Fold each of these.
Amino acid sequence: MQKILVSACLLGCPVRYDGQSKPTHHDHLQRLHARGWLVPFCPEQAGGLPTPRPAAEIQEDGRIMTQCGKDVTTPFVHGAELALETCQKERIHYAILKQSSPSCGSNTIYDGHFKQRKIPGEGMTCKMLRQHGIAVYSEENLDELFATLESHP
Ligand code: SF4
């Protein structure tokens, strides 16, 4: 059976920094969920950060900082490593990660100045998964993933 790692917040789990979730009701995601293919995972929680937690953004030098200037790079890296470990253990080749998060973003991230400005970039977990050959999608391109899965069942 195919398995896909998915950001837990996209499935409605209240794991985001603000204690909320970001459920997506996209048909394709519901379909994959109904097939039992989805493996929910939150890298920031897995990495040891509490919920709720201060918002954090990736800085120009690659570190991940909260708005108060606390360096939280280490738990973000740890969460990314655990996400990779889960993929390797479960033979997962695809992931659906929440766009723009400093862990899960796959095309965009926030610019590091806490001004709600997005720039092109990848979150820590997305980057690590891609470096190890896992194809990362987001809630914004589920059609593309679904087409890929249908052509390579
Ligand atoms: S780290 Fe990823 S899964 Fe966890 S709340 Fe943020 S976007 Fe969602």
Amino acid sequence: MIFFDRVEFRYNEKSETSFNLKEVSFSCQKGLINGVIGGNGSGKSTVARLMAGMIQPLAGTIKVDGASPFAHIIQCGFLAGIIFQNPENQIVGTTVEEDLAFGLENLSLDREQMHSRVAEIARRFNLYDLLKAPVANLSGGQKQLLCIASVMVMEPSWLIFDEPSSHLDPWARQDFWQIVKSFICEKDIGVVVISQLPEDMQHFSHILAFDAGALVFDGTSNQFKKAAIGNTCFNLPESWKFERLMQISND
Ligand SMILES: Nc1ncnc2c1ncn2[C@@H]1O[C@H](COP(=O)(O)OP(=O)(O)O)[C@@H](O)[C@H]1O
Ligand SMILES: [Mg+2]
């Protein structure tokens, strides 16, 4: 479980009044797709960085599977790994194999273990035949897969996707969602997906909505459908609006 209790954060420590996150409390469970939505600058990526332990809260408590993600990094690596929006900024190797092995270098595994982990993850993501290929030759969709694989190879207990599908074409986006759903079914791995795309919202079972650093909604997608119709802050899927209109006309 990811647990936030009255978490506050600001980037500019000197400014005493303005918070980038204001007293945010929620929890996310494994086995669900936890969706984080909100406009630009609403605090979504800040929540992701806090979950991963890349930054530390100014006040409040964060636990990921019972441990502090910030303290855990120093001892044993990421509890929650982030996949960022733009694969170009995340890829560090020149070949697929190098990129997959990069994070493992710090985990004090022997060569054998490293090779078998890289091979296993490459097979799972259909990248095995491309292990020796230069990353520059990959398609946009393959690069996105490589980013997910490079985080997965570290075996984090949670995966956080920060607007991962915003630049994928509709077909690649379908593949993306299939992979995300396979994690939830097969692996004991928690999933948080940040997205502003209305079409992604239909995949969320739990929704956290942010506005100006405050958590303005925490509930199921059905509850959100009812609460958010008429609210112009969020780009709801057309099908949801339609469904709601039909419901109202039947009431
Ligand atoms: N590295 C940073 N330094 C200073 N301010 C930042 C930084 N990153 C984000 N912010 C500010 O924090 C707020 C929340 O940003 P962010 O979490 O990136 O929002 P979102 O991901 O929802 O677009 C915004 O006002 C943004 O300008
Ligand atoms: Mg962001």
Amino acid sequence: MSRLLHRPLIALVVSGLLGINLIADEAPVSWFKEVNPIFKRSCNGCHNPNKLKGEVDTSTFAGLLKPGKHGPNFIAGQPDKSLLFQQVSGKEPEMPKEGDALTAGEAALIARWIQEGAHDDTPTNAYSTRVTELPVYATPPVISAMAFSPDGRYLAISGYHEVFLLDATNLVLVSRLLGEAPRIESVAFSPDSKSLAVSAGAPARFGEIQVWDVASGKESQAWKMGGDSLFGVSWSPDGSRLAFGGVDKSVRVLRVADGHEMLKFDNHGDWVFRTAWVAGGNRLLSASRDRAIKLIDVTSGQFIDDINKLLEPVLSMARHPKEEWAAYGGAEGGLRIYKAKENQERTDANNDVNQVRQFERQPGAVHTVAFSPDGSLLAAGGASAEVPVYKTSDGSRVATLKGHGGAVFAVAFSPSGDRILTGGFDGLVRVYDPSNGRLTAIFTPIRLDPTAGVVGK
Ligand code: HEC
């Protein structure tokens, strides 16, 4: 009722302001259908959860509701007192900072939306990337992650929007774990093999942690957080907590039972790709593109030390199964093992005091490193499409796994140590004998349908 009464007045105020005429009896302006698309085209490039210019997020209603650096973005009912309208109107509008100014009609629409109360009509699943049908693949999806369950029964392989769960013995597909996020970044089985944790994301939208019940193939938990992909999920030794990093440069620890955030660590200066638990679950290692592997006290959340000399972005890391050591894979081909402890004796000369071993330099970025179950071997996959396997004890090369059609992103030893699997850009899983590097099988985790649209790449 009151809206109807106010309508002519609004039209007068707004049209006076802009020198244009509004039709008095139009339907109310829709945030979702009319205003949001204007922002999407002209504003969200600088105002989104990952790029908060002026601390303003115009990408969602929830984002707009949060005040920017200079206060609230809008005051419902008062367009002329709302930054959002002020910034896009007038003779020389401040915003958008770059690109074409909004048309008078677009500015008027924003004003009218605010005047009408700035209502949110975002549909419940508006920003969901959930798919209702299982993906059909014309080409094998790029493999970004792969893991065996500790009991040796299952093998998890990343797909698009989903993780394939295979019987590890006969390599037959058992279930397809279809979640919301399109990009699967890492997979890890719980120490008791009953659950699978997945870190994933939708670029520039959200990150997601999923926990799946392995026996039933059902999702038991899923938490969305941050504005982009999450990486390197790892279980605490007692299986009660999950650690992971992300594009947002943070390291987080969640309690598996209820998703409670127990730790958020913001000392890294760049994307955090891997995490690993040491000291019986009391300390955490995090590896980042900022070149550091950081040691964190889990209880206090305090930074202890960088365990390594800062040489190159760290892309991959793996914990040694027995020793308090971590293997390190660098963006410039560095492959090393470090002690997971404080770097106290470091001097200005900057000797790399925690380094246990340095392997031959790899010809390209090292995307993945994996120890054999007994820790005697270290395999490194990366840009070079060949996967060398080294003896941990003296750094000598024992095998070279060949035949990949592109970069390798995932390497996994079977828990008995008799097989080593690789996966990567070409979407094929290759099975090798670690003792001599002989290729024994090649397969795709899912049957392909050449008539389908390409969703794999
Ligand atoms: C090319 C980047 C860019 C684009 C595109 C852009 N902005 Fe901005 N915006 C900025 C920057 C930078 C600031 C911070 C200015 C400052 O702090 O002084 C800002 C600040 C703001 C503010 C806060 C102003 C204040 O005084 O605190 C609002 C509101 C805003 N922008 C809205 C918009 C809207 C609406 C659009 C689209 C029509 C838009 N911006 C497009 C870069 C951009």
